[in-house]
Design goal:
CRO Repressor; elongated; 147 residues; 4 strands; alpha+beta
């Protein structure tokens, strides 16, 4: 039972950690970030299993984290309120060519980040953008103005 409680505690901590980091940062991992994630994974494993190196212990931890993930996914699927809490809401960054500074600060994005993504979507200037939306997966969607 101790393994289950530790696995659930770590699951919640990692979930909160990823929410605090922000969606944009997680969608654009740099090599250092990837290495850091591997190191964190090793530290988490040590914290969850401690001295238990049995196959049974590993299976219990894997099953607990898997069930927790499926449970949060199901809850997100069934409940709009839970989905908003677990996954976040899309955030409007540009409306009719005007950058919404408050939302940009909230998501820790710069105008340079936004214009870089616009160029990748073959948009020369933010003046061409009717809407730019930071999606829940960290991608930025652009809708161009008509004409």
């Amino acid at each position: 039972m101790d393994l289950v409680l530790r696995a659930l505690a770590i699951f919640v901590i990692i979930f909160l950690f990823t929410r605090i980091i922000g969606r944009r940062e997680l969608s654009t991992l740099q090599p250092f970030d990837l290495i850091l994630l591997v190191v964190i994974g090793d530290l988490v494993q040590q914290g969850v299993t401690q001295n238990d190196q049995s196959i049974t212990g590993a299976l219990i931890v894997i099953a607990t984290i898997g069930i927790a993930q499926v449970g949060t996914s199901y809850l997100s699927f069934k409940s709009r309120r839970a989905r908003s809490l677990l996954e976040g809401e899309p955030m409007v960054l540009v409306e009719n060519g005007n950058v919404i500074e408050r939302n940009m600060r909230r998501e820790r994005l710069t105008v340079d980040d936004l214009t870089e993504q616009a160029r990748r979507n073959e948009i020369d200037s933010l003046d061409e953008v009717k809407w730019a939306v930071l999606e829940t997966n960290g991608d930025i969607s652009f809708i161009k103005k008509q004409g």
